[in-house]
Write a structure and sequence with these properties.
By secondary structure, the protein is an alpha+beta fold. The protein has four helices and eleven strands.
């Protein structure tokens, strides 16, 4: 029960953190799989399979929904069928995890997914226990274009910035160790809310949606860059803003 309560609390915290961004629906409890129709995670909230973490593309890796849990998965991870009670016990496409649970069959080792790597922390779970999380844009080296993504500084790993392509992705595509960086405010005439992380010749330029959000990120990154891991600890390091 404690585990269930903690999971529900993390879910509610994440929903609040996204400030109106529509996130994935609540997951069914294990005992409800196959008995209740799931709410599907929306396609545009993920850029990679929620099971094997491989990125989607339009040609060779189409999006599919597991009819048991509602996750967005690739063709390989949804190449299973199981009887679902809510659909009159008819066979439906399901993901590997739901297939094993619903049928009790063991999946051959050569079809199992890869072992989790250091970046494979789900965005929703990490955001629910983060120091700060939101959408930002990371500009390219020319400062003209860039990639918009979901950025998170986790409470249990406060010296690292994790970057996800979407807020429901189950794997970060990159991370930036923040220790030792300097935070710089960039005043721009085009009304963009810009700031930078700089260390030696390595510079990252970010664009926030609002000035208030920019200030929050600058403060959070500055604390991490100074090695401050306790949210209640006073900041002693001078920052360039």
């Amino acid at each position: 029960q404690d585990a269930i309560d903690r999971k529900e609390k993390r879910s509610e915290t994440f929903k609040t953190a996204v400030h109106g961004l529509e996130t994935g629906p609540p997951a069914l409890k294990t005992e409800e799989l196959g008995r209740r129709a799931p709410q599907w995670v929306r396609d545009n909230l993920v850029t990679m399979c929620m099971r094997c973490k491989e990125p989607f593309n339009a040609i060779v890796r189409r999006r599919h929904h597991c009819r048991a849990c509602g996750y967005v998965v690739c063709a390989r991870c949804s190449d299973y069928k199981a009887e679902l009670q809510y659909d009159g016990n008819r066979l439906n496409r399901v993901c590997q995890e739901c297939y094993v649970f619903l049928t009790g069959h063991v999946v051959p080792e050569d079809r199992e997914g890869k072992q989790k790597g250091i970046l494979e922390k789900g965005a929703a779970e990490v955001s629910g226990r983060s120091l700060l999380c939101s959408s930002l844009q990371l500009l390219d080296k020319n400062g003209k274009g860039g990639t918009r993504g979901w950025f998170v500084i986790p409470r249990d790993d406060p010296l690292v910035l994790y970057i996800y392509a979407a807020p429901q992705d189950v794997r970060a595509h990159t991370s930036i160790p923040l220790l030792g960086y300097r935070v710089r405010d960039l005043a721009q005439g085009d009304s963009r809310h810009l700031f930078q992380l700089a260390q030696s010749r390595q510079v990252y330029t970010f664009v926030a949606d609002t000035e208030e959000l920019k200030r929050r990120w600058m403060k959070a990154m500055a604390r991490s860059a100074a090695g401050i891991t306790d949210p209640d600890e006073e900041e002693e390091e001078d920052v360039d803003f």
